[in-house]
Write a structure and sequence with these properties.
2 copies of one chain form a homodimer. Chain A has 499 residues and is of the alpha+beta class. Chain A contains 14 helices and 25 strands. Helix content of chain A is 34%, strand content 28%. Chains A and B meet through strand 2, helix 2, strand 3, strand 4 and helix 3 of A and strand 2, helix 2, strand 3, strand 4 and helix 3 of B. Strand 5 of chain A pairs antiparallel with strand 5 of chain B, so a sheet runs across the interface. Chains A, B: This is Proline--tRNA ligase.
Amino acid sequence: MADTAITPTRAQNYPEWYQQVIVAADMAENSPVRGCMVIKPWGYAVWENMQAVLDRMFKDTGHVNAYFPLLIPLSFLEKEAAHVEGFAKECAVVTHHRLKGDGNGKLIPDGELEEPLIIRPTSETIIGHQFAKWTKSYRDLPILINQWCNVMRWEMRTRMFLRTAEFLWQEGHTVHATAKEAQEETLQMLDVYQKFAEEYMAMPVIKGMKTPDERFPGAVDTYTIEALMQDRKALQAGTSHFLGQNFAKASEIKYLSAEGKEEFAWTTSWGVSTRLIGGLIMTHSDDNGFVAPPRIAPLHVVIIPIYRNDEEKAQVLEYVQSLAKDLKNQSYVGSGIRVKIDDRDMRGGEKAWQYIKQGVPVRVEVGPRDMAKGEVFVGRRDKGPKEKASQGRDAFVQGIGSLLQEIQDGLLERAKKFRDDNIKKITSLADFEKHFTGDESSAPGFALVPWCEAGVGHELLGKLKVTPRCAPLNQEAVSGNCIFSGKPATKWVLFAKSY
Amino acid sequence: MADTAITPTRAQNYPEWYQQVIVAADMAENSPVRGCMVIKPWGYAVWENMQAVLDRMFKDTGHVNAYFPLLIPLSFLEKEAAHVEGFAKECAVVTHHRLKGDGNGKLIPDGELEEPLIIRPTSETIIGHQFAKWTKSYRDLPILINQWCNVMRWEMRTRMFLRTAEFLWQEGHTVHATAKEAQEETLQMLDVYQKFAEEYMAMPVIKGMKTPDERFPGAVDTYTIEALMQDRKALQAGTSHFLGQNFAKASEIKYLSAEGKEEFAWTTSWGVSTRLIGGLIMTHSDDNGFVAPPRIAPLHVVIIPIYRNDEEKAQVLEYVQSLAKDLKNQSYVGSGIRVKIDDRDMRGGEKAWQYIKQGVPVRVEVGPRDMAKGEVFVGRRDKGPKEKASQGRDAFVQGIGSLLQEIQDGLLERAKKFRDDNIKKITSLADFEKHFTGDESSAPGFALVPWCEAGVGHELLGKLKVTPRCAPLNQEAVSGNCIFSGKPATKWVLFAKSY
């Protein structure tokens, strides 16, 4: 066995390491359909845990779920000019509604549609059409809807979880009577995303507003949470859009105000996707595989019974079944501990390495000697694979909730330190160029620079493959000039190489 | 106000009544995309409750969730002859991957694909392709997977929930080493569906095997649960397929046995969809709207405060908030009571009718006089809208779990009696014809007839628009001849007009 379970290591080849972690943890694989992935059970279990938490947070902020059509008439997309511009180049188009034989034993499309339909890349236009029917009076507002679904964007370069042609996501869509309410909603959902990323995924994020060139097509303002991966590239982890009246005008979402006047409504949309799983992998995983933060881990504890013969096996299994039962009755973040006994006939070490690669927070090995002493042999995924220690069985059971939270907190703290260590203030274009020039395979983290709107689209950015990530919401007063335009700076803006 | 909240009534025009119940309960609406519906929050909340129960039942029987691509290469569909035959005429076909301007301000499809892709009508072929990679040795078996997703079948005549071009469903797909194990899985999942339909939806079903002409395209055996709607038409509510080695051969799902021999595996698939919501509506609803069985109702109890002025309002609201809190702490089927206080400024009667139409099991009205007496005024959705009664507040709170179960049991009992009253044994073709001849708008229920395989496709069936529903698994010994072929009968088979 190599020194590490994953080859290559992060230092050797980060992009390839990422793919190999996904393989080793058995989370996903490529499919025969270009750019579409298969989310395997372990990866999907992470998504289910993420969904459950997010869904609860959306409902606690007053939203309800609904479902709208997968297919969107082409003419709907045309209604909002910036929107169609943003999505036309990556739409899967349905043109026929049946198949027929070609006479040579092959099938060909048949039944051409009068108007082609596109598979939703996002649902503002089709949901807007329905909202226009639902919105008659100010009494009908706000409308607070979320949809869990699949969407499709025909990306040319794909990478599992991070960028795939089809992905799973949630898209919130809301309608309000005033700009103020819509803006508050936009920021409220950004807070929800930050809370989720940090408290559940242990992935620290910076909340900010996108610069105009990075806005969602059709939005007035786009807000984002930006995370930093271990290769010091940024990841846009979630976005929340204040759409102003743009989509309300495109879809005719109007209401009668309390004063009896017809007004266009104000809308928002916000979404996170299976891309978050890519961010999760790249935030915590190490050269031995995936590291799952306890709060969203498919399993909290795996128990590996160790024995040499059938007699020992029977005794050990009885012991670990009672251990598993007691663990399940303990609680962590409001629900039970997720425990599994792996009693397959395989070497214990082989099993242990499987769970290390899959990122299970706590491994417990129990053999006859541990039993005799009333002990368990405990390994933590956030420590080295050999750093295991004996512990009294009952103390371990009683302390499991605290142990999981300790692991959770440790992951966030480590990631936060890494992120904070990799933000640098830069106040000249020369320093900016120097900062971002170097080996293609690594990146130097975030640069925080004085910026103004006239600096958008500077040619150096394309050359360096660097993009503005956001103007952090929480920022110091800025002075001096925008490093790109030379004009007085209006904001600090974060730049980075990114996914 | 008319005598009933829904116009027309069931007796006047059943199909239109069904549509109007959906409108009145605000569960769904048609979309601008042909045959695709919008599932509105109240309808989607029912689906979420159904999903939660089914998902738990699937996991308790050892299944895990995963996700496979929406799009399927045309060539995959061609691999199984019966399968392609069954689905080719209703496939949405993706032929292009972007849009471009036509020079006249309109968008047209661009970027033609080398091989067209179809939107999954079901996923046997794409999942089979992945299973072939996952299945190397008998040690990898069984594989027990479920997928929650959307699918598309381009139906020509659609009806909300019952038959839509796009629908939501779950599709289970499993791989086994032996025919026996696959058959056991097929029947196990049929039992799960029956349990769900009867214990949660309060919808009695008959488990049976489909006749050969009604099998899933590519299946060896298709099992079904069949329900009877209030217009005495049957509804296929869920199916479970023993696929033999048909799809294993088409997708090359092979494994090395314990004896080191390469074998084709045996597969199953099984699914239920949002169609169940249509069945739910048609099983319990009445001329005042939807009736939600408590176990899957979005809300269990709605509280309507009654007051004449602000002073009364404050007092009553305080009283109902404490009532709601106490109700929430009671439990029903392992979780809390779902309670809402409706304090909108509207007439109490108007509110009450909204919840009657939406099918909330229990309505509670509370005004100053009820408060003074420590009472609540309770209406049950399974009784007439005027049959309301006063009850002591604490007794009502203590008894809410039992009351909900009483309502649940009553719905099942009523539906079961209706179903049982509408099954008739028929042993001659003349009686069969007489039984099913009559007004187009109504149906006479199930006919149970002696049948043999040679009777498949009798011309009378098409003329009467009657189909074989299933051979009930639980059946008496059959004697005499098949009424269609005149040859010795092998089974009793249920026939009906159906959805």
